[in-house]
């Protein structure tokens, strides 16, 4: 029987190596390399008047110093704006080294290359830069006020304003039986992966070849950027991504300045050079995300069905715009979730601030969109006195409505069309998993005992598997082992396991015989990258297609060798055999020998000759349209994105005295189509939930009014420990296969983090009885909210809700016919 591992809970093959300390990261390569250190701006906004290098040039151990004046050609030009969009009115990107002006604390001004990192750091500290201070624009209120500008040629600090709509949403809201007006706020957070950014490079002058190792999510993108900026042929640049200690989006930007400066120095100096980012550097000079202000106007009927939805969003994109408008586009399109408002309008304003750039962070705009929509659903339920689950159900897209066109354009430039799903069934699963219907009685019992508990839910839809393409190459060796290469990178997702499961299932070989290589442009020079929950959909599909091609080729070779019809053959456990004819078989290793018609070449194990001309002079050794070798390369390019979905629920307890928030129960129902490996999917969900807990309750980037980051260390930037993350996360799966790819799969990598802010806000609001409209929320902020909403009683019974759905106070502004459209 053919080896079947697709869908099985196969243990990750990469884990033993990592747990034994055998991982190989960028800092482990080129141990004898020179070290680069970076001088970073101490100011958020200033003109560079002079850079004095005199105290550095003669320092023992210093090999080279570079400022912008030392760069030329393409290297002296701004870094690329990776994803242009017609709505961008003022697209600005930084230079590899600052020219004339700095626009955030941490911007690279100069670099030193020295014999070791200690000397390089000492030398950086001796560089004397004269700055002329300029007013700093910090935070969205300051950016919106535009009393000062980040860039003189970006009026109003606006990088872009963009609207998508399906009709006149304002009119639909105004004519609705009930209307609400809601203001929401989400602060900045950051990825903070275990391994920061790192790059190493070696130049071979004899062959004119450059090898670069970098901790990236897109090795081929870095390769193209290096070739372009250093004026090299693409074919002489190799980029290898070794083990990566977490990416989460921050490493999808390409190129980072250091990814250009390290190879530039390596070529100029004729010696290997490396750069390894320290933790403070990562906080102040890598990428952040999340910060948005949102205004929602919604109209709805007596059942809670939305009749019109009008949303305006102000998005903080930091000092530059290297990644275009992807994050706010995702926010405004994924905000719709599993719902179908008949009329929808979303406008975002992407604004410059004198802070670190903003690029996708796990979830990539979706947590903000889900926060807007799910807070809206909760407030509709509270206004009507209905169960929050019932209001959601009243707005669901139904199973027989797929594929469902939302009438918008998604981040990939293609129509926002959901391919499959079953949201009513998913809601039923979630309610059963968390005990939703039984919670009212439980809550009342606990409150009678003096405990404050609340329950919340949040739903989401996640666009996954965005194009344009990914490839897969499969080669069967003469040993029977199967070598697989794909160009996207790996940073903890379990690709070596899940991709091997696909190959083992499709090709009919033992799982243990499959070897996976990712992120090496020498093995797969064309690829896009690992982000947006696309690896399984894109590379998985390409690998499956290549495996099917190899299987066909193997069966055709075996049919010739065994003098049988292809339809009479079966391939299992790496052996092709004739059905019903014991002993009539041939191994894939032998077929690999036969696939390469060399004269007098033998497979020592089977003694099989490959001289095809013997006995059949008319046979063409390599027929037209084929190539030697039992191998195949294929590429998958999707018609559009697939859409995974999920729902989370959480029960929390808030301490009546300290306002600390404790998670009592967490439940997830998720649909990512067919599951390649349920255990890996659940691991992704668990990791995402942990990150979501941090983003909702602990993590924020705290800037002062001068643009100085106040918590640029793990002593001050609070991440959840194992004590803060739920020890048990109840997970249930729903599989609605996607019709858009050969495996019926959807992405899963970001699912766990997407609804976190919304689900915790919902539960805390339920526990406390007042609005929670800004995230993250800390115990001190919750304590302050208590004093604002209950000035006469800082503790005690917060009151009971009319149903699981609502809070005793109206956490919004009411706009309905009874008030003649006014606000109260």
Automatic annotation (TrEMBL):
Residues 615-636, 783-824 are annotated as: Disordered. Keywords: Molybdenum, Oxidoreductase. GO terms for molecular function: iron ion binding; oxidoreductase activity. InterPro entries: Ald_Oxase/Xan_DH_a/b, Ald_Oxase/Xan_DH_a/b_sf, Ald_Oxase/xanthine_DH-like, AldOxase/xan_DH_MoCoBD1, AldOxase/xan_DH_MoCoBD2, AldOxase/xan_DH_Mopterin-bd_sf. Residues 20-135 form the Aldehyde oxidase/xanthine dehydrogenase a/b hammerhead domain. Pfam families: Ald_Xan_dh_C, MoCoBD_1, MoCoBD_2. Residues 783-796 have a biased composition (Basic and acidic residues). PANTHER family: ALDEHYDE OXIDASE 1-RELATED, XANTHINE DEHYDROGENASE. This is Carbon-monoxide dehydrogenase large subunit. It comes from Mumia flava.
């Amino acid at each position: 029987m053919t080896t079947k591992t697709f869908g099985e809970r196969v243990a990750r093959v990469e884990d033993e190596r990592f747990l034994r300390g055998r991982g190989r990261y960028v800092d482990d390569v080129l141990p004898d390399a020179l070290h680069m250190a970076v001088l970073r701006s101490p100011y958020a906004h200033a003109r560079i008047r002079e850079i004095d290098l005199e105290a550095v040039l003669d320092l023992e151990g210093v090999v080279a110093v570079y400022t912008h004046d030392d760069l030329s050609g393409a290297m002296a030009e701004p870094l690329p704006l990776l994803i242009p969009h017609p709505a961008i009115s003022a697209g600005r990107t930084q230079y590899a080294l600052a020219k004339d002006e700095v626009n955030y604390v941490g911007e690279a001004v100069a670099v030193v290359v020295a014999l070791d990192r200690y000397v390089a750091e000492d030398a950086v500290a001796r560089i004397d830069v004269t700055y002329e201070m300029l007013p700093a624009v910090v935070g969205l209120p300051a950016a919106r006020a535009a009393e000062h500008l980040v860039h003189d040629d970006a009026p109003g600090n606006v990088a872009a304003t963009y609207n998508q709509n399906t009709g006149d949403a304002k009119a639909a809201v105004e004519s609705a039986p009930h209307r609400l007006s809601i203001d929401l706020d989400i602060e900045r957070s950051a990825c903070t992966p275990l391994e920061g950014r790192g790059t190493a490079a070696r130049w071979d002058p004899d062959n004119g070849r450059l090898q670069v190792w970098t901790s990236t999510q897109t090795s081929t993108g870095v390769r193209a950027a290096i070739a372009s900026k250093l004026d090299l042929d693409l074919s002489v640049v190799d980029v290898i991504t070794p083990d990566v200690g977490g990416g989460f989006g921050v490493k999808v930007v390409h190129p980072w300045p250091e990814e250009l400066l390290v190879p530039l120095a390596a070529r100029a100096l004729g010696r290997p050079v490396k750069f390894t980012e320290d933790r403070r550097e990562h906080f102040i000079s890598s990428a952040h995300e999340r910060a948005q202000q949102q205004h929602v106007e919604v109209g709805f009927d007596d059942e809670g069905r939305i009749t019109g939805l009008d949303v305006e969003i102000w998005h903080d994109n930091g000092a530059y715009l290297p990644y275009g408008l992807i994050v706010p586009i995702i926010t405004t399109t994924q905000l719709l979730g599993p719902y179908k408002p008949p009329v929808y309008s979303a406008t975002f304003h992407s604004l410059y601030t004198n802070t670190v750039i903003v690029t996708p962070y796990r979830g990539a705009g979706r947590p903000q969109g889900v926060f807007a929509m799910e807070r809206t659903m909760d407030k509709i339920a509270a206004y009507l006195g209905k169960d929050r689950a019932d209001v959601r159900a009243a707005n669901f897209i139904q199973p027989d409505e797929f594929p469902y066109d939302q009438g918008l354009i998604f981040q990939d430039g293609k129509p926002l069309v959901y391919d499959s799903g079953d949201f009513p069934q998913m809601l039923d699963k979630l309610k059963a998993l968390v005990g939703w219907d039984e919670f009212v009685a439980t809550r009342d019992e606990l409150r009678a005992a003096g405990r404050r508990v609340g329950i919340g839910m949040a739903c989401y839809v996640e666009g996954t598997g965005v194009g344009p393409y990914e490839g897969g190459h499969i080669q069967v060796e003469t040993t029977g082992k199967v070598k697989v290469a794909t160009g996207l990178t790996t940073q903890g997702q379990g690709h070596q396991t899940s991709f091997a499961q696909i190959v083992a299932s499709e090709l009919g070989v033992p799982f243990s015989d499959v070897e996976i290589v990712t992120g090496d442009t020498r093995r797969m020079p064309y690829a896009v990258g690992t982000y947006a929950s696309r690896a399984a959909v894109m590379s998985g599909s390409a690998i499956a297609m290549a495996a099917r091609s190899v299987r066909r080729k193997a069966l055709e070779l075996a049919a010739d060798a065994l003098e049988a019809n292809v339809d009479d053959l079966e391939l299992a456990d790496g052996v092709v055999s004739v059905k019903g004819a014991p002993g009539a078989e041939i191994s894939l290793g032998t077929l690999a020998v036969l696939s390469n018609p060399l004269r007098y070449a033998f497979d020592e194990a089977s003694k099989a000759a490959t001289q095809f001309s013997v006995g059949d002079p008319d046979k063409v050794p390599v027929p037209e349209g084929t190539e030697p070798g039992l191998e195949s390369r294929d590429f998958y390019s999707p018609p559009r994105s697939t859409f995974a979905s999920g729902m989370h629920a959480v029960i929390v307890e808030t301490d009546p005295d300290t306002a600390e928030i404790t998670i009592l129960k967490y439940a997830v129902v998720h649909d990512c189509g067919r599951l390649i490996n349920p255990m890996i999917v659940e691991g992704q969900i668990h990791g995402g939930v942990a990150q979501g807990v941090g983003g909702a309750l602990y993590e924020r980037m705290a800037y002062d009014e001068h643009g100085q980051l106040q918590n640029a260390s793990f002593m001050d930037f609070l991440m959840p420990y194992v004590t803060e993350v739920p020890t048990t996360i109840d997970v249930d799966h729903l599989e609605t296969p996607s019709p858009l790819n050969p495996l019926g799969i959807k992405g899963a990598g970001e699912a766990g983090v997407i609804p976190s802010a919304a689900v915790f806000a919902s539960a805390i609001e339920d526990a406390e009885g007042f609005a929670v409209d800004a995230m993250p929320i800390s115990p001190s902020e919750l304590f302050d909210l208590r004093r604002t909403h209950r000035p006469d009683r800082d503790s005690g019974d917060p009151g009971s809700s009319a149903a699981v759905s609502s809070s005793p106070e109206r956490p919004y502004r009411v706009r309905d016919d009874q008030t003649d459209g006014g606000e109260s």
